[in-house]
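Entries read sequence, tokenised fold; example below:

***
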Amino acid sequence: MIMLTYKFRIKDSTTCKILNKMSRDCNFVWNYCNEVSRKRWKESRLYTNKVVINKIVKGASKELSINQQTVQAVGYELETRLKQFRKALRFRGRKSLGWVPFNGQTIKYVGDYIIYDKKVFKFWSSREVKSKIKTGSFTQDARGRWYVNLVAEVNKEEKICSSGELGIDLGLTSTVADSNGQKISSREYKKYEKDLGKAQRAKKKKQTKKIHAKIKNKRKDCLEKYSTKIALQNQLIVVGDVPPTKLAKTKMAKSVLDNSWSLLKGKIRHKTKRYGGIYLEVNEAYTSRTCSHCLTYWEEMPKGLKSLAIREYTCPSCGVWQDRDINAARNILRIGRDSLQAEKSKNKKLDGLAGEESPTITV
């Protein structure tokens, strides 16, 4: 079983005011729980867990426009973030995007609308949710549009992926270079950078938000289509473990963030699992300096940030012309195969040892 999120856009014209009021109440609960947790930590160094949160928010729904389950869900989310970040969290204010969590038991899903707390929220339904809804939330984007996210538990797809294998090298000029020789780019920000600059200088906030939304949607669409395609075509997908958070602190930050490596890896990981494939992340050190044809490692081959301008070269050993990124992707696939094979042989040895009879000791 896997968890799948269905996202639908709500028809804001009928429910925008209601959702705005509910999100303000969620912010109030978040800020109150956050303040209490800070005081408890300062005064007695005690951690605020779910038991304490339940006592804090007990009966709060009587004075708010959200039900008690949503009040508790806000508190539980605060506790989760405290565990994750291990530091004081920010308070939610007017500039925070709207957010209203709920449990699957508190809503009723009926085709193109849901009922929450006796209120009907209509949305544009693009597909049917056939599984049982576990949790969900109402969320707002930067343009003020509201969406409903329904998290349902679905059965894992039977082995429907093809028997192919693919290695992926994540890059800057092209987002992806794979071992099949294909390259794709999701760098949408660069295409709209001039238009965005004009709108920002003219202080046209609506147009600026519109361009940002267009960039985001185009990038997401590109990565969604590519990840679905390769997940269905390959039973093994190996990706290099390039660290986006570290590179985002360098001069290449704009290119790194525009390529959205983390988003792509998350989509591939989820879809390979859903379609019955295997997803691996391997150490990509020296993959661009090792010839994928003869497996010869050369110090003279392009390396590091200084030689990023060199995209193609000829191997000094075998004379094969190589594209730097595709060569790295093929080496990444080879490393993934080797690590998978080593793991399988290790498991076989362990199974064999477990099946052996223990020696008889005579005293």
Remarks:
- The chain has a mean pLDDT of 86.
